[in-house]
Design goal:
Layout lengths: L1 E8 L17 E4 L6 H5 L2 H21 L12 H26 L3 E4 L3 E5 L2 E4 L4 E9 L3 E3 L12 E2 L13 E5 L3 H13 L2 E5 L11 H12 L3 E3 L2 E9 L2 E8 L2 E7 L1 E4 L3 E3 L26 E4 L2 E8 L10 H16 L13 E4 L5 E5 L2 H8 L4 E7 L4 H6 L5 E7 L5 E7 L3 H4 L1 H9 L3 H6 L10 H9 L11
Parallel strand pairs: 1-2, 1-6, 2-3, 6-18, 8-15, 9-10, 9-15, 10-11
Antiparallel strand pairs: 4-5, 5-6, 7-16, 12-13, 13-14, 17-18, 19-20, 20-23, 21-22, 22-23
Length: 471
């Protein structure tokens, strides 16, 4: 039996927990997958490294509307893939070697483990690991619908599709969320004939209703979209995969060279034995934690066992996992003066085409919580600003929600060019309690920058200015 001061299950954000505090103490890090976790290897980093060249390819169509003649002569998929993973694989391997061979106090286990008690793990090879402190940071994996043909060659998830040997000529993407929509934008821009299939009537349906509707319209103009279509199965017919769907009671078959299943992700907690030990879990399989990131059992925090990332939250966002890791680092090192996790104003962005960024409540959520009469709402088009005119933008919108009495932002939703950048001052306003009128008039807004669309949206909410507010 090996005993450690700290045992970390997962090498994504969990890898950052090993600070100088643990020098001279024994630490185990355990990961049966690829070292470095989801974001580095199969998530936000490689996907965005594909997104940027896809944006360059898509700019050809945008330039034509502005009188600029450009051409797209195709993508060297293999070179693009090798450039991206040549960097990422080296980072992953270097991190693994550092933890395994260069730190005398750290032991790396590259196999699955399972709790047999609240202070003991068993490895797949039969080793026993005990520790004073545990951190569960096991991430998540793609969900696969249980239908015929889901295991056929050519059927991929987001974990595998970026390593294809060649750009597919015909790609069917199953799913209407952010993963499906980002890959639809990438592959369509690079030259694939893409059809995105969703079982509901809009794409990105968890967004504010106005953003979801606008994005569905914009996506439908860029690649094929099939809505209200339920998956029945996948089969091989000659050299093609056939995706069998049912829409409005009628069969619909789509032929493809490659199928991407992007119907969601599930936490990697089901094989850890945590449910058997009485730890509380949400319906989606994520672990319930208290404000200090400690696991919860019977309504009470469990001392010495922490959770973070996709295994212990519902956002499944790297920046949330990183902040949770900082909280866990502090609380492990300062058990007598622990700090809580701040979950106010958690933002997210979808790097599709067009981009989406959001923070706070949707209009439906805001009205349900505060009452319809208390919620102010405005939609400001990109095209209402000078920079929007320069772009000839007819799609981009900023939607803001504020409380009528307090003047505080309740939610911000942006769809369009660089939405992920434009939303940042709105995130800051929500996090710091800055009211709408002060934000709109308490600072200069550069003219004619695209950020004026945010300024105009703030003004458009109609929150009365105070006498002390700048003119």
């Amino acid at each position: 039996m090996a005993h450690y001061d700290l045992a970390i299950i997962g090498s994504g954000s969990g890898n950052s927990l090993i600070t100088e505090h643990w020098d001279g103490r024994k630490v185990a890090i355990i990961d049966a997958g690829t070292f470095g976790g989801t974001c580095l290897n199969v998530g936000c980093i490689p996907t965005k490294m594909f997104v940027y060249p896809a944006q360059l390819a898509a700019s050809v169509a945008e330039a034509k509307a502005l009188g600029v003649s450009m051409s797209f002569d195709g993508a060297d998929w293999a070179a693009m893939r090798d450039r991206i993973f040549g960097r990422i694989d080296a980072i992953s391997e270097a991190g693994k070697n550092y933890r395994a061979h260069e730190l005398e106090n750290v032991t790396l286990y590259t196999e699955h483990v399972r709790f047999v008690s609240r202070n003991e793990l068993n490895t797949a090879s039969g080793q026993s690991i005990t520790a004073d402190n545990f951190v569960i940071a096991t991430g998540s994996r793609p969900v696969l619908p249980q239908v015929e043909g889901i295991d056929l060659p050519g059927v991929h998830t987001s974990d595998t599709i970026m390593r294809l040997d060649a750009l597919p000529q015909r790609l069917v993407i199953l799913g209407g969320g952010y993963i499906a929509s980002e890959f639809a934008a990438v592959f369509s821009a690079l030259g694939s004939e893409v059809t995105q299939v969703n079982r509901s009537g809009t794409l990105m349906r968890r967004q504010d209703a106005d953003i979801s509707a606008a994005f569905t319209q914009a996506a439908s103009a860029r690649w094929g979209v099939e809505l209200n279509a339920g998956l029945q199965g996948i089969e091989q017919r000659g050299d093609s995969l056939v995706v069998r769907l049912r829409r409005d009671g009628q069969p619909l078959d789509l032929e493809a060279d490659v199928v991407l299943v992007a119907t969601g992700r599930t936490p990697n907690t089901d094989a850890l034995g945590v449910a058997e030990l009485g730890f509380e879990m949400r319906e989606d399989g994520s672990l319930v934690v208290d404000e200090y990131q400690r696991l919860v059992a019977d309504g009470l925090p469990v001392e010495g066992i922490f959770g973070l990332g996709d295994a212990a939250n519902t956002e499944q966002l790297k920046h949330v996992a990183n902040r949770e890791a900082r909280v866990v680092i502090h609380n492990l090192e300062n058990p007598g003066a622990m700090r809580p996790m701040d979950r106010r104003a958690v933002p997210a962005a979808v790097f599709s085409n067009p981009q989406i960024a959001y923070v706070g409540a949707t209009e439906a959520q805001a009205r349900a919580e505060h009452g319809a009469d208390a919620v102010l709402s405005v939609i400001q088009p990109y095209g209402s600003t000078a920079y929007g005119w320069a772009m000839e933008d007819s799609e981009g919108i900023v939607k803001l929600l504020a409380h009528r009495d307090t003047g505080l932002l309740l939610g911000a939703h942006i769809m369009g060019h660089e939405a992920s950048l434009l939303i940042q001052p709105l995130i800051q306003a929500m996090a710091t309690g800055l009211d709408v009128a002060t934000m709109a008039r308490g600072q200069f807004w550069i003219h004619p920058a695209l950020s004026e669309v945010v300024e105009n949206a703030l003004l458009g909410l109609g929150v009365p200015a105070q006498e002390s507010d700048p003119l």
